Description:
alpha/beta, 12-stranded mixed sheet
Amino acid sequence: xxxxxxxxxxxxxxxxxxxxxxxxxxxxxxxxxxxxxxxxxxxxxxxxxxxxxxxxxxxxxxxxxxxxxxxxxxxxxxxxxxxxxxxxxxxxxxxxxxxxxxxxxxxxxxxxxxxxxxxxxxxxxxxxxxxxxxxxxxxxxxxxxxxxxxxxxxxxxxxxxxxxxxxxxxxxxxxxxxxxxxxxxxxxxxxxxxxxxxxxxxxxxxxxxxxxxxxxxxxxxxxxxxxxxxxxxxxxxxxxxxxxxxxxxxxxxxxxxxxxxxxxxxxxxxxxxxxxxxxxxxxxxxxxxxxxxxxxxxxxxxxxxxxxxxxx
Length: 312
């Protein structure tokens, strides 16, 4: 396990159907959110335990006021070989330069549709801001991957256009099966679109042996085209969990060994009222020891918290 995803906020400036209920307003009190110092303390202990890759997530991580300071602190930690972020891209026009200067190396940018009306229907956001953010990040030399969550009847018609866009920008795009991580009606089976269907839609493709990150995506080159397409099939890929190398730190200090399992270890006793590195290391090892072999998504898993509270 050499990969830690760190959520820095549960708040988001979009309301994606698969992530955040439209009427949700029960945000965590700000005093419960880990401070910059506390986040860096956990990350330092994690690095000493063998973590080499850190992904900053949210909510929307760029909604956190101190995001540049957090990135700079993480980038300065010994042993961290790669620092990346998952974002909806809407604030990159304003922040990409500062994040790049702070030491952020790459970005995963959510892009669930290109049609403005369809994008707003799925996310509640403005596609113009996202596209401007992608261009700003490309101009700075960020390595970028695009993430598209598959929702039948919502963005299946957008798939060819999204692949065209990825090819035009020379960016890998990953199609992600809908997972039961939302407290909304999106859990209905009628919304589920398996990656096998998307593969048939896109036509002949050849597996690519190169790795494009630390995640579970399997990449392919489309025949006759200059675009790489990845597939993340948490529900239909029966080998999905075999190579899992990650844990998650929630924004209020819970260490979660598996997204599709409810177990969390509370790290706050090792952070408040003072930081105790030895206890942090113990709790980290204790949590790693109970990391499950597989998620429970195929076993009628019912989420107990919204995805933004867990960390994307």
